[in-house]
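Kindly review both lines to help learners:
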Amino acid sequence: MRLLKESGFTAIRCAHNPPSPAFLDACDGLGMLVMDEAFDCWSRGKNKFDYSVAFKDWWQRDLESMVFRDRNHPSVVMWSIGNEISERGEPLGTQEAKMLADYLRGLDETRPIASALNFVVGKWTDTDGFYAALDIGGYNYNLNNHVADHQRVPSRIIACTESFLQSTFDYWAMVTDFPYIVGDFVWTAIDYLGESGLGRWYYRAVGDKTPESYGAPFPCHGADCGDIDICGNRKASGHYRNIVWDRGEKLYLGVRQPVPEGKEIHATRWGVWPVYASWTWPDMEGKPLTVEIYSRGEAVRLYLDDKLIGEKPTTRAEKFKANFDVPYAAGALKAVALQDGKPFAETVLRTVGDPVNVLLTADRKSLRADGQDLSFITAEAVDANGQPHPNAEHQVTFSLQGPGAIAAVGNGDMFSEEPYQGNQRKLLHGKALVVVRTSRKGGALTLTASAPGLKEAAIQIRSTVG
């Protein structure tokens, strides 16, 4: 939750069932608003043996369980009664939506009720009856219908309940420009296991007309559509969203993944062109790289070793972006953001040397000895100057001494076949993550990381009883 807040998010839609109490406790403590959601289907199912087999007998008791458990959490600001319900454009959906919404209002009349709707088989206007039962109309990817819907039903309050990563700017503009649209819930803030390859990018031969695939075969095992990967690392898209939303960041400098000769890069609608904060591309000497800059200033300047490459606007008209084609040469790439012609922010990417050390950084060094507390420790390969190496792929082995255990290892690679439980992980973009769990005994824990060709590192954390 802390990572989400730092990334600029202010609200979370739960998908598509009530969350854990620990999740809501974190939202209460850190000030994250929550749309608490009950069901993914009602009487008409989406898969064999899904909730539809229990809906008739259990919907009332399950709504009661959700509301009675969660209604005293201040973070819960609205309820959702369903996601992309199969009967949403039919009279049956209208009837069921009213039935659930009326019953829920009898349990709690203090919060608005929503539901997330998307494409229908018939006309979009067939959803009007369903929406009439709600206080807030949720739109999954169909926010382009909002103008006609507002003209037809001007009293409708709208929230985008799912949006494509590629729609970041366009949906922000709609939320900003139309007061009856109250927000945009993106799919998805943090990456997750399942829906494998939903947001992937991939290469294919120039001219290949094969229909785009929205999935990926084994060993892909994750969606790869998050602004933050499963190890907590923010992607370029997460920095862009923060800048578009004006949530604190003013400038981001990255480089597009270069495409091999004879290939084209493709991304699904939940994906974007991969961009990395790196100016270390050893096989690209003299070849053009696309530098991508996001800025909240009116313009940016780009320099290579203090030589001006150029200046471009980054206003709303440019969607707060500017791209430069730059022949690669080792050195320092610097972006400067301008407002009223004056610099107000800058960032630098430097070519790094060969990796020589492992660096361990813990998010917390003081833990509770309760058998549950966790420390998330990042392992990075760094050069002689301590700069992280973005291309390192070393296999790192972890060992732990003291009253605790290694709970998990990861690197964010959705195509990796390495297990998440163990004591080894290959670096991805120079990083890996190890999660340490305390036992019920207090004391010092020492984590050591070693890799062939790198100087090993150790870090100490402490757990305390009581």
About this structure: The chain is about 15% helix and 35% strand.
